[in-house]
Amino acid sequence: SEIVIEEGTGFCGVDGSVDSNHSGFNGIGFANTDNATGDGADWQVNVPSSGDYTLEWRYANGGSANRPGEVLINGSNQAMVDFPVTGSWESWTSASAEIVLSAGENSIRLQGTGSEGLGNIDSLSVTGNSPQAVACG
Ligand code: GCU
Ligand code: CA
């Protein structure tokens, strides 16, 4: 099954702000990291058993270069994701990563590896065996 996490349950925060000044996002806004290496956003999910999951971020990158990110699951780097330019901050598309989640609660962090931080992140979708968005912490 698939869940989509917007700015509600399961979204734990961003090193920056939740903004709404570029149209096309779903929900109340999008996560805008400050433009610095290591700045990112955090989510929390629960799964019934260890297994493979697909993470997909809806994002916009109106900058002039890719804004690559690394995916930390429970603090361990499991994947790198490219977030190529989308042409404007109002043009949204998606980028994904395949990762492994452990039984129970998992923290998911996406952080920029370049000095511009991440693109603007609208949502995180988690697909696999019965994921649930849960309270952070
Ligand atoms: C602009 C844009 C922001 C974006 C930022 C960036 O300021 O309005 O939404 O996050 O560029 O370069 O990251
Ligand atoms: Ca930004």
TrEMBL record:
Signal peptide start and end residues: none
Highest taxon in the source lineage: Bacteria
Positions of the CBM6 domain: 3-127
Protein name: CBM6 domain-containing protein
Species for this entry: Microbulbifer rhizosphaerae
Included range, full protein: 179 to 315 of 900
